[in-house]
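Tokens help. One example:
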Amino acid sequence: MAAEAGRITISIIGAGNVATHLAPALAQVAEVRQVVSRHIESADAIASKIDGCTPEASLSGLLPDSHLYIITANDDAIGRIAADTPDYPGLWVHTSGSVGMDVFDGLKTRHGSLYPLQTFSKNIAVDLSRVPFLLEATSEQDVAMMERLLSGISRQVRRVDSNTRAALHVAAVFACNFANQMWAEADRLLRDRGLDITYLLPLLEATLGKLTVASPRDAMTGPGRRGDIDVINRHLATLPDDMRPVYATVTRRILREYHPGLESHLLTELPENEQNRI
């Protein structure tokens, strides 16, 4: 398949959530030639949306002359894929936030990382123009090439080293995954009362909106911020056993930040009359 003159050619390895969103976006500014995955149905679902793109079920079908090879597979698979493929002369990158680009050392001559700082689900649309893309490579030329490419789909393209990227990934786990778990806990409490998380959406939207004008510390509200121990202890007394330690741990963190010493007043053992209510 002949490449259009001047266009970057891309082979994508993996057909999960990241590839589902990234491949069609890149196809607007480059030539996405193939999607390679042992899950051929998933590869076909992506390739079928891109003119001239073909699905491949095996790494043996990887084209040898692409300019860019993007590994979107799970973190644990990156090193294996790098070891199981020839050192084709294109630039090899992965999309992981927590894996250093040194995973390619001794395996690929040209290598780096291309990390989209976003949570992806296959069937939920994402505006990639707002997604930060964090780039790193072994040569200035390769970083510049990725900058030109990604600037065609995102307004936020930055160079970061592996240590900075790892710190951003941990921060994202706190801000996204841990927050989502808290929403799941809230949803569970509400469903026990015939409600659900949608009742909290205006609150969540307002909370997130505050971060455009204030730091998380300045935006904090609630009983922990106020130091309202009576309210906190009533909450602890009525929570299910498996939720109580989570509530207590997070509340202690808040109290230590705003009211040092008050955390010692948290309820640790429930009175008998409260135990019977749970």
